[in-house]
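Hey team,

Sharing the Type II secretion system protein H run so nobody has to redo it. Sequence (180 residues) first:
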Amino acid sequence: MMPRPAKASAGFTLFELLAVIIILGLLTGLAVLSVGDGGRDRQLEEQARRFISLVDLARQEVMLGGPELAVGVTRHGYHFLHEVEVEDGLTTWLPVDRDRQLRPRDLEPEDMELALRLEGVDVRLDYRPEQPDPHLYLYGTGEVTEFQLTLRDQRDPDRIRVVTGDMAGRLRLHTEAPDG
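Structure output:
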């Protein structure tokens, strides 16, 4: 009697398993890359919403009887400022140091930048001054300097978020530059 040939195995070959693993790796890589862009949009949105929340908090503090405040904007961040008398009748604006919520803020990640328009005029912003100039004034009546603040991704300049504020103190977030 002749020996019977062995039955063919019903499993996968090593080559087939490697091909499936490579395909899954490529698909996973593509999924991660596509989610990466959504992450940048999310970061811009998060920074813009944080700015709105903090300005609104500062505005409410002023409306409740606190001292008038201002916001000094730089290319990569912003500072909340209060007016301090330095000599007889001479005042200056200094960063708020008594309130942890209103501490100076830098944009994260660092490759985001700010651009500011006040009443329709572009403002030249410094990179990181020790003592920024006040730009947006928050008054006890709830009024705010009219402004348009653009947060831009330096790697993709078309990717922006725009925060606008009007004299009535209304702050709004836009995904593109508003008309006007």
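The first helix runs from residue 14 to 63.

Ping me if you want the raw files.
A.
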